[in-house]
Amino acid sequence: MNKASSLNNAGNAGIALARQFGIYVVLLVLIIFFSIASENFLNSSNLLNVARQVSMMGIAAVGFAFVLLLGGIDLSVGSVITLVNILAAWLMVNAGWNPVLAVTAALLLSAALGFSNGWIIANIKMPPIIVTLAMLIIIEGVAYLICDGLPIYGFPESFAVIGQGYVGPIPIPVIIMIVIMALGGFILSKTFFGRYFYAVGGNEEAAKLSGIDVKKVKYLVYTLSGFFAGVAGIVILSRTNSGQVLSGKGFEFDVLTACVLGGVSVTGGVGKISNVLAGVLILGVLSNGLVLMDVSQFVQMVIKGAVLMIAVALDCLQNRKSL
Amino acid sequence: MILQLKNITKTYPGVVALDNVSLDIVEGEVHALVGENGAGKSTLIKTCTGAITPDSGQIVIRGEEFTSLNPKLAEQKGIGVIYQEFNLVDELSVAENIFLGRAIRKGIVIDRKAMEREAARIFEELEIDIDPSALVGRLTVGYQQLVEIAKAISQKAKLLIMDEPSAPLTQTEAQALYAVVEKLKAAGVTIVYISHRMDEIFRLSDRITVLRDGQKIDTINTADTDLDKLVTLMVGRELTETYPVRNHKVSDEVLLSVNDVTGAIVRGVSLDIKRGEVLGLAGLIGSGRTELAEILFGYKPKTSGHVMLGGREISPRLPKEAIAKGIALIPEDRKKLGALLERSIKENTTISVLERISRFFTVDKREEQNIAEHYREAIRIKTPSLDQKIKNLSGGNQQKVIIAKWLATNPDFVIFDEPTRGIDVGAKSEIYALVNELVESGKAVLMISSEMEEVMGMSDRIIVLHEGKVTGELARKDFSQEAIMSFASKN
Known about the structure:
- The complex is a heterodimer of chains A (323) and B (491).
- Chain A has helices at residues 3-37, 44-69, 77-93, 99-123, 128-147, 161-164, 172-190, 192-202, 204-209, 214-240, 251-261, 273-292, 297-322, and strands at residues 152-153, 166-167, 170-171, 242-243.
- Chain A is an all-alpha fold and 323 residues long.
- In chain A, the strands form two sheets. Chain A has a two-stranded antiparallel ribbon. Chain A has a two-stranded antiparallel sheet with strand order 2-3.
- Chain A is globular.
- Chain B is of the alpha/beta class and 491 residues long.
- Chain B folds into two domains: 3-235, Rossmann fold, CATH 3.40.50; 254-488, P-loop containing nucleotide triphosphate hydrolases (Rossmann fold, 3-Layer(aba) Sandwich), CATH 3.40.50.300.
- Chain B is built from 17 helices and 24 strands.
- The longest helix of chain B is centred in the middle third of the chain and has 16 residues, at 171-186.
- The relative contact order of chain B is 0.11.
- Chains A and B meet through helix 1, helix 8 and helix 9 of A and helix 10, helix 11 and strand 20 of B.
């Protein structure tokens, strides 16, 4: 080993560090920028507000990240949110169920819908994008059938705690997000089946030949994606206090953006939950900061799209260099 | 002197891939480049083709000096390369592939006829029989490679670098390749030929350069050396025997019994494997060898027949079930079917035993580390760290990690499918020694190989397949290349 190569080592370690935490650097830069640009940005109540705004996205992003790791995609996330939202509302209001029961039933349904996606993808070997697109349309239709397109409201007061309550200064949705993110991180880094997500996403045939039951892994991942979307749906319902057919519309694209910003590869096998959290926070900070700066909603869309494009472009360029 | 490398050094994090290497390639020669995996051959080629930039040193092409090249410049200077992975588009015709990016046109329309004529002319020169209008995807690997060569020639390559060109080929295809190499040489094309196969190096080359651990050991005239000397130069130590002797007898206990099994392209195959035995499975590509292995391993379905393991019938529908019964398969295609390239050596080693070393779904990281550490020592996996991604290892070391994965499952019956393809001599003999250890401890091994010498050197008995059927069985005393070939090509 000579001097040049040890210098080289240090350089590469630097790059590795930047890759690992680069997304947090971006987040920090954004926070600094908005702190300077708007006097209302940097205070605890606004930051907690940001955290609460992104919590639903963060919850759903965990399952979505699993699906991406597997090399799949789940377009039905938004419609699962809508259906869970409508169903739980309908059960509480029209069928008079108590909230615990209604929420449990709705969550079970979301898991079952996710499982159906996984089963069809694994057994009929249809492309995930088509399966979940069809599922999106079906589920959305069912949600309309249940409520006729009309909002449902008038829930028991206790139900509002989930979306509107606090533990100390921390909003409960934020706590739910943190718990689910921690759970997701634990699954990926500590459990054997989390390892399997990476293995199947990285090389499905090699995973199968290594003794992994690939079908079961797919069932599990899509079930979790459905379930976490369901949890997000319940939180949204409790926050808005009314069941709405538009509650989850387009949500899958926000979640996808957050995951990709967080460095989850859309081709599978690469990604970490801690970085997904950063992706979620970047989107949250961006929209909150832009609102505080009085930037119009349409301009915000343009900026968000550009951020996504740049984030992925940087990742692609970096990957190419390392080859 | 068509190409000179002067004091080329290239370092990667933790590795000096090339250490002050100088090399002269004389116009018109076939220059073989040999060395173990990780010796620096690939880095050297990439330097010549401009795929990488060396840290220091010069590249001199016909007197013109460069500190680095880029692929386009290398091509302009007449350097062509045939990589192990082909750059061909399956959906296009042979002629279209040859002229990819340089299509002959009439105005804005592609002149297919002219391209096919030109391709045919090149093939004629090289005495190759390929239809220029055929789709490349329909050709065998051997013919695809010839298309690659024709492509390089059409680009007026004066120096052709071939990276293990014979590795994916059958015996017959390799012969055709040798003929083409000789034609090219006669036509004045200089060739740098990288290979692990010693027979072809002696057959084709004028001079041989040996690399080891990133350094040039020597350049010698092929006529002045022999196999033993060359191997000693390559590994830096004497390898006593290519195929280590086994000091034990095959037991009488049948471990695996295959009875009239049909499925995929396998047709009614029956065979027995005893404990302590290496059964060689020979046959041409497409004879059903790999498919039989995959059926036994539950990777491909069997439509009829019975398989008994240790006296009990098994019928695995998934590899997972076969593994639970004590079967292991080291697959033929290391990168596609063996390795999880983006994951670490450690994770690759333990992926098949993860559930066993988990409690409450949680992987016991200490146990995992122990297992990986154990096999790194036991089968000498060369790596600075077990957390290194497996894709950064050389082919031989990757194969060792994959073997480690299977040893960790503690199998009774191990199937090796082309275990030493593209692996250097040092790693090869280590893998052979490992096979011996397995059978000496009472396990059984099924060994599939296209290399005649390997099958004959390692097996206690050989079964030959042809078009999915068993066409012959040979006891050790009857082993001969001729006997195997005649069974392998019989109807």
